[in-house]
Amino acid sequence: MHIAAVILSVLLALAMLHSATTKFTRPEWLRRFAEAVHLTTTQLTVLGSLQIAAAVGLVCGIGFPPLAIAAAFGLVLYFAGAIGVHLRSGDRNLLGATLFLVSSAATSVVLVLDATA
Predict the structure, then answer these.
(1) What is the pTM of this model?
(2) What is the pLDDT of residues 60-101, one digit of tens each?
(3) Which terminus of the chain is more solvent-facing, meaning fewer CB atoms within 10 Å of its CB: N or C?
(4) Which of 32, 93, 100 is nearest to 85 (CA)?
(5) Residue 15 to residues 36, 71, 101: CA-CA distances in angstroms?
């Protein structure tokens, strides 16, 4: 189980770093997307910073599992919130947030199972 926990943590961390990079570089498609859900550039910066913090927590948590578990659970909350923001703003483009939510939840479960084994 430990290998699965490490692989999922690293893959999720890489996905968060990629997502954070787009929030900092703000390509045109992301600016349109952010406008659709009423996010400011300051909010994008904060969200990207949270994703970087989670990525660091996931990777550092390989050596200290409670940190990885906290980071993964934090991402579950982050993406549950993202889905809420999309729904509240009337935007039905939920695929990305849903995939990240499922990935974060799966990683959380595997990390907890690994820590209790």
Answers:
(1) 0.94
(2) 999 999 999 999 999 999 999 999 999 999 988 899 999 999
(3) C
(4) 93
(5) 22, 14, 12
